[in-house]
Amino acid sequence: MTSPSPTRVCFQLQVHPELLDEYIERHSPVWPDMLAEIAASGRRNYSLFLAEGGLLIGYYEVDDDAAAQEYLAASPVAARWEAEMGRFFVGLAGRPDQAATPLTEVFNLHDQLVASATGSDDESDDAS
User: Fold this and answer.
1) Catalytic sites, residue numbers
2) Hey, is 5 helix, strand or coil?
3) Which of 12, 35, 89, 90 is the most buried (most CB within 10 A)?
4) What is the DSSP letter of 10?
5) Alpha-carbon span 64 to 42, nearest angstrom
6) Do 31 and 124 meet the contact criterion of CB atoms below 8 Å apart?
7) Mind telling me which InterPro entries this protein's record contains (predicted)?
């Protein structure tokens, strides 16, 4: 029996441009107890990408995103981290980990390769 695919979550935030250097410093490295809380929440393969001008894109995988969010919302460590991080973001109401704008996934190579191998969504069927 195969396990269900993890949920892929991508989000965006906007970092104040004048705080970019400090934001990067704060993540080099992240507090060890915060890293442990992220892992304990079930999030994995978590990355942040920062574009020029402060556009921040985050990505992680999780089996149960609602449970991970609940875990982190109840974590005193995450509450302290998010309270310190909140000032870095433009137009944010609430904790950054709970107020980020989720993005819609429109393509995933693995999923399409699996679908192609099983014959679903076969483009050649449409051509006839």
Assistant:
1) 27
2) coil
3) 89
4) E
5) 8
6) no
7) Dimeric_a/b-barrel (IPR011008), Rham/fucose_mutarotase (IPR008000)
